[in-house]
Amino acid sequence: MPSFADPFVGNVPRKMTKEELIQAVRLDLAGELEAMFLYDAHSMAADDPLAKAVLADIRDEELVHMGELLELLRQLDPKEAKQFEDGKGEVLEMVEKLKKKKKSSKK
Ligand SMILES: [Fe+2]
Asked: Per residue in 35-48, pLDDT tens?
């Protein structure tokens, strides 16, 4: 939820260290995820076709923002990028196993 009531909430007294920047980007990523979830829920709950379409469009833009932030994290932290790739590899292994299982069950 917005915290605009505090006029100083956006003021930052100094530049961030790289570690703080990485944490800030992670927090920004969580914000995009939350926004995407809310727009999706509101679009699904709306009856008005224009509202439904606009909210769904904004939801999709939030997914693009998430992709941008994930790539930024990869660029800022090669170790984290490797961990993302490890996770991707684990899922791809499962996909291959399921494909093989499906193929062998058809025989
Ligand atoms: Fe966004």
From this structure: 999 999 999 999 99
Residue pair 55/22 in contact by the 8 Å Cβ criterion:
no
Q: Report every protein residue that has its C-beta within 5 angstroms of ion ligand 1.
A: 32, 62, 65
CA of 33 to the centre of ligand 1 (A): 8
Q: Are 34 and 2 in contact (CB under 8 A)?
A: no
Tell me the whole-structure pTM to 2 decimals. Answer: 0.82
CB of 59 within 8 A of CB of 43? yes
Of residues 66, 64, 8, 11, the one with CA closest to residue 34: 66
CB atoms within 10 A of CB 33: 15
Examine the pLDDT at 2 and tell me if it is beyond 80. no
